[in-house]
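Large ribosomal subunit protein uL3 (Taurinivorans muris), 209 aa
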Amino acid sequence: MSEKMGILGRKLGMTRIFAGDGSAVSVTVIKAGPCPITQVKTAEKDGYHALQIAFDEAKEKHVSKAMQGHFAKANAGNYRTVRELRLENAAAQQVGEVLTIDMFGVGDKIKVTGTSVGKGYQGVMRRWNFAGIKDGHGNEKVHRNAGSIGNNTFPGHVFKGKKMAGHWGNEQVTEQGLTIVEVRQEEGVILVKGSVPGPKNGLVFVRKQ
């Protein structure tokens, strides 16, 4: 398989294991796969090369009729989630093949995409690390304010991208350069050293770098 293969999984949480020298290593446990290939896309037919993979088996009543028919073509059962994996050699794979954690090995470098933990509505000090306003006697109830956001008459508006208070987190994040510490085939989990985005039980997309 290609070096750029990937797989879907769920972040189960964190634990620690002990290395051969006795040192404790913090790791994130990811339950990954199995992910059947439900469609192979090619440049001739779809305009690009990609594999569509499915994850997380579901009851028939929880899957739309359209997706039930789509999964039936692959003879793969019903699933909650599908994602695309861009691959130049996608045509070398077959619909119905199942991707598992066999593709990974100890020491492999991976990148993990997930939805970061949502922090809700936050002010500028927490969201952007603003220093705040001086706490002198002349300042009243403005210590955590953002300060001025305006400009002169020209251009007369707030620039797009201005750092202000607002919703923080709950967005797609990709962490690169993570290391696989252990692959447990019998349990279907991989142990990853590094910062894996998302909450417990959050969906993650694990790919080789």
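The longest strand covers residues 6-18. The two ends are 14 Å apart (CA to CA). ok done for today
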